[in-house]
Amino acid sequence: MTGSGFLFIVVLTVLxxxxxxxxxxxxxxxxxxxxxxxxxxxxxxxERRIYRLLRVDPSREQRWNVxxxxxxxxxxxxxxxxxxxxxxxxxxPLNPTHVAGVSPKGAFNVAVSFMTNTNWQWYSGEATMSHxxxxxxxxxxxxxxxxxxxxxxxxxIRGVARRRQSTLGNFWVDLxxxxxxxxxxxxxxxxxxxxxxxxxxxxTGTTAAHTLEGAVQLIPGGPVASQIAIKQLGTNGxxxxxxxxxxxxxxxxxxxxxxxxxxIVVLPIALTTTFGIMVRDRRQGRVLLAVxxxxxxxxxxLAVFAEASGNPKLDAAGIDQGVSASSxxxxxxxxxxxxxxxxxxxxxxxxxxxxxxxxxxxHDSYTPLGGLAAMAHMMLxxxxxxxxxxxxxxxxxxxLLAVFIAGLMVGRTPEYLGKKIQATEMKLVVLYILAMPVAxxxxxxxxxLLPSALANVPNPGPHGLSEVLYGFASTANNNGSAFxxxxxxxxxxxxxxxxxxxxxxxxxIIPALAIGGSLVRKQRVPETAGTFPTHTPLFxxxxxxxxxxxxGLTFFPAxxxxxxxxxxxx
Length: 570
Description:
mainly alpha, two-stranded antiparallel ribbon
């Protein structure tokens, strides 16, 4: 590892450690509408106008099923809006490059992708989408889909924290307050920082540049910085340009790389502080954070190690892959030299540990072990630390499963924060855990059996299987990154991956909200000598074991046929 790479990791760790706790405390006030805040003078008038426009009574809370229906209704309207914008973009303004409307299946995939916070992109953004669609369609969804995920997490926290009640809050209030008070201010600051470093923000189309050889190069422009800020903060990941944050117009230097890497993880980590405060036991939040960080650091370190070690076949050929004055060393295929394997591997760990999906290097060019780290990280369910909101939701579900197993071990009815975990909750936990693997493995299995689908997999053998597995792991986990060798623009992939995104979003959110609705009705039982403590390192280890064992039993056979056998063949 180079000295600059080590310094980058240290600065990133300190920056997240300093900013995440106060942000978590701030979000407690954001999602507690009855608590006065200094920001009320600025935001309350705007919020009241929005409530009147939506005909929402902010004082009226919702049961879990009404909360879920509100989320589904909002998501459906969002889907229709983004779909219509794409289909009609050839007739709409702010289209300087005169791109035509998107095909029906392609528009379906993109609308589902951005509505579910996946931001999977089968297309080249600068060549397929107009500025209007990028701003009004995709960037808006970057905000509201992320806020919807945070709203779900807050609703579930209320279910754990409250007793003998029937409501989890109001979805519309949580959506409005999260957007106005959290994501908009943060995105404004990050966008200004990015613009100051050269990330473009304009309404121009393409600019013709004449090279020294006499050729003409068309350089794209557009409202980039505003989209990049929220794509990272909202763990969205969809880039304005085809190569995402490897493009110098999105991520020009080490400072922007640091800011964007920080933005990917700060909100998911901050939500653990929010959880600890809202349940009135900060130790509980620290336990969840510890599990998240162990997984994040482990898989990021594996990716960095694999890429910094280089390709053994190149070593055998006598090619020097070591660090030098002109090279950061390691496996440089698919990477920007200005970042190298440490910056790229760290980003790969973060983007697959969250539901972000943006990239500053091409994951398809990673060594088999590096690609395995990214793919397996998603297969954990993206709980390390997971996407904004849904990451906390996922780790809480695993905590409930862990405490249930612990209860069976000691022969007691399992309890979590004083709430008994019974058959109703465990059935919903099982539904939650099964949804993503069914979508991932089901569609991947059918794909490898269809000759027409395999025709879009250019690489035969284990790497081709890895490309298919990665594609459905990314979509079923609402991630959005890709092994770019897979041609996902065909009707088969745009349709099946769209369905996988829907399952990965709502097949998890609805059972999780139902769990919150079940827990909120329960009374807390007093602690006794036989109560299993859930604030200790032992419980953190139990959650960690549950996450790894469930993922291992589910996905190891598929991984063994893909990246593992490819690694052993080097």
